[in-house]
Amino acid sequence: MLATTGDLASLARAVAGDLAQVEAMIPPAADPEAFEPRPSDLGKLKGAAVVVRVGLGFDHWLDKLLAMHGDATVNRGSSGYVDASFGLALLEVRGSSIDPANQDGHAHGLANPHYWLDPLNAEPITGGIAEAIIRRAPAMTENAIAGRDRFLGRLKARLVEWERLLAPYRGVPLVAYHNTWPYFARRFRLNIVDVIETRDGVSPSPARLARLAATMREQKVRVILHEPFEPEEASQLLARRTGATVVKIAPSVGNLPAAADYLALFDYNIDTLARALSAASN
Amino acid sequence: MFEEILAFAALPLAAAVVFTGIHTWFGLQVLRRNVVFADLALAQVSALGATVAVVVGHPVHSAAGYAYTLLFTAIGAALLTTTRALARSVQQEAFIGVLYVVATAATVLVVDRSPQGAEHVKRMLVGGILSVTADQVVTCVALYGAIGALHWLLRRPLLAAADNAAPSDPKTAFWDLVFYLSFGLVVTSSVTIAGVLLVFCFLIVPALIGTLFSARIATALVIGWIAGAIASVAGIFGSFLLDAPTGAVTVVAFALVLVAAGAVRAFATAPLPERGRNRRRGWRAAALAACMILALSGLWVIAVPAGDHPVVAAIEMVIGPERFMTPSERADYFEAAAVERRHKDDVERLYAIERQSRWQGGELTSDEVRRIGSMQQTLTEMGRGERFVVDYLRTRARERERWYIGLPLAACGLIGAAAIARRRKTRSASNPPAPDRPVR
User: Fold this and answer.
1) Residues B382-423: tens digit of each pLDDT
2) HSE of A256 in the Cβ direction (CA atoms, 13 Å)?
3) The sheet that has A51-53: what strands, in order across it?
4) Closest-CA residue to B7 (of A10, A65, A238, A37)
5) Is residue B434 part of a domain?
6) Quick one: average pLDDT of A24-40?
7) Is residue B217 domain-shared with residue B295, that is, in the same domain?
């Protein structure tokens, strides 16, 4: 099995258990939105029985790879192809993939693609993965269903704990570097008032930073969420100007060593965030 | 707000002034030596050193990180010194170019082994002068002050080596090495703050402006400092006004100051007969270019009314794009534009509702979120439909407009251009060109 991101690979592993070999295409610590496939990825695609993708234009490069070398069974619409975004309740729908006026920093796509950061979305995502496994290897049906149930049971138990940890900080104003966290914010009732980077890869203008600093003071923003692979200068500058803290949390499995799998990703992010917010409120 | 802007601008401005101070001096020497791209090559070699350090496992700002960077810079300096001796029948610049691309390619290869490499390479190029810290500025002042003082003491042998036509002489090679080593130190530390693009500007543009006005190195240095300071202030405050990234705006500001200095040199401070000729030529070229732009836009709108027409669009800003529509078209046009705006507002309103619900009041159910999403999508698509109507009606209007606006534009432009060309011809006929004139 081949997944484009570490998150989907981790979910696929949770479903398939030891019965399948699961690989992720984007290297663990890299910026997924700046990824460019290399020749060895074509080789991985050749042997894959199931391909799981984020969709929504997040991993648009996969289309080209599939067209070039993919097995017919993993092409769009066939039995081994899983678009994990299918059927989810999407946020920040923008209507079309080619709108140049798109202002939220995602160059492609229909909606905000960071949906795996709502742990409840793991349920439909793993559902799609399990279905594809069953279609491709009917002998694994029971294993896949049992694996998924086990995983979801653990996830739901943890979710109670995660929500408890972040409950005191409901509505606390935050600023994020990249617009990564809407699904996360919705699940854990956080208030992300603004993002620093409005266009992917373009450093924010000083006027925007000055406005942001004013907003942050006015709304008493104490914490800036920052992805480990994004340039730190702007976040650090704002932190220095406003006295806020830059908190590095991982938007994807593997971005930080502590976020080794899907559950550990939330364990780490929520623990780190809760600690930073508690320190900031004292 | 103004205080906020000043607070953000103070440190970058200080850094820019410090950079201008040392880089103009180095730039003047670089121009004398004809090695304009040496700074790019050196910066890239030292970036390679920093990258190797990161990949091996040392943080960039650790002692080991600096050691790697310095080591690679020294190697780069030695290589640049040797290329001068090698370059007998070709320009030294060719070797420098090779060094630059090889160092860049090597950085890419090294970076390929580390996951966050692409980001690192991009940062080296663009830099982040906006987020420079007070500590960094103080370090730069100390380092550049020391190097500047050393260069002032050694200015005679350094300048002699720069002008020396016999580069294989070991004495010259030694001073070259001193020059490139100190140059490497300066470039390495400024590139980590301001990025390769901006450092190139600090280095070359003020020095270029200085040499435009004076062949004496001291005068050129002072003029370069003034020009560099003006460009830095314009770039940093301009980026606030334009709401655009500071590094890129500052580069453009340097270019504009260079153009302005060129104009001052050609039209105001050149020797008298030359000045008059330059002014006449400048006016004629500007008028000719303006006429040609008018003529071509007129012809273009006549040929392809559905294309992009910046000049016609500018005229429409004054007369209104609906001027050449029929009354019913005009009504449709305004309605479609209003509906498109309304749809956009509705999309934003839905977005605001969903955002608020993330933390305020009761949580929206998945189905409610889905409903909002599909409404947003529908509204966006409907808005696009209205946009299509607006564009279609505008094209229909332009099909008529081309005869009323395009034709006169083309006629004016062509007649103007012809008149300028004719005047030039009669002038040169009555006033034969200089070489033919008998020598008095």
Assistant:
1) 998 999 999 999 999 999 988 999 999 999 999 999 998 888
2) 18
3) A23-24, A2-3, A51-53, A81-83
4) A238
5) no
6) 81
7) no
Q: Cβ contacts of residue B355 below 8 Å, gap of 6+? A: A182
| CATH 3.40.50.1980 applies to domain A166-281 | yes
Task: Closest CB to B119: pick one of A94, A231, A236.
Answer: A231
The residues facing A51 across adjacent strands are A2, A81
Q: Which domain holds residue B305?
A: 289-428
Q: Which two tokens stand for residue B31?
A: 């121009």
Quote the pTM value: 0.81
Question: Which of B108, B112, B114, B116 is the mutation pick for testing A, counting most A CBs within 10 A?
Answer: B116
Nearby residues of A91 by Cβ (< 8 Å), 6 or more positions away:
A111, A112, A115, A182, A183, A186, B354, B369, B373
- Give me the residues of A, 37-96, that contact B with CB < 8 A: 89-96
Of A29, A94, A209, Cβ closest to residue B8: A209
- Same domain membership, residue B138 and residue B179: yes
Answer whether residue B284 is part of any domain.
no
Q: Where in chain A is the domain with CATH 3.40.50.1980?
A: 2-157, 166-281
Scan for tokens 């498109």, then name that residue: B340
**Fold exhibited by the domain A2-157:** Rossmann fold (3.40.50)
Model confidence over B30-71: pLDDT tens digits? 888 888 888 888 888 888 888 888 788 777 677 888 888 889
Task: Kindly provide the ipTM of the predicted complex, given to two decimals.
Answer: 0.84
